[in-house]
Amino acid sequence: MQITIYGQASGKSIFLKYVSEDLSMTLLEFLTKNGITIASSCNGQGVCKKCLIQNDWLTCELTLQEFMERQPDGKILISYL
Ligand code: FES
Question: How many angstroms from the chain centroid is the CA of residue 9?
């Protein structure tokens, strides 16, 4: 199982594999664990609103499973990457 991270600023794509144990992690936790730097100044408390993907989804409030249900192709768009 794989997700694709597309950096809209750089035009580059990064591919990450995940396993079923990762599905309960927040997307912020999963991306950070895999070396993807996500903007955040509230440590995932849902306050700063900087951890956006798809322009309006907060990675700290979305599990990997919820993300895959919303976005079955697994493509993450990050504006500043
Ligand atoms: S990390 Fe601050 S709102 Fe998500």
Answer: 16
Per-residue pLDDT of 32-70, as tens digits, reads 999 999 999 999 999 999 999 998 999 999 999 999 999
- Strands of the sheet with 2-7, listed across from one edge: 13-17, 2-7, 75-78
- Going from the Cα of 38 to the center of ligand 1, the distance in angstroms, rounded, reads 9
Q: Which domains does the chain have, with CATH numbers?
A: 2-78 (3.10.20)
Count of C-beta atoms within a 10 Å radius of residue 20: 9
- Per DSSP, the three-state class of 21 is helix
pTM for this predicted structure: 0.92
Q: Given CA atoms 16, 17, 21, 23 in this order, what sign does their dihedral have?
A: positive
Q: What DSSP designation does 63 have? A: B
- Closest-CA residue, ligand 1 atom 1, reads 44
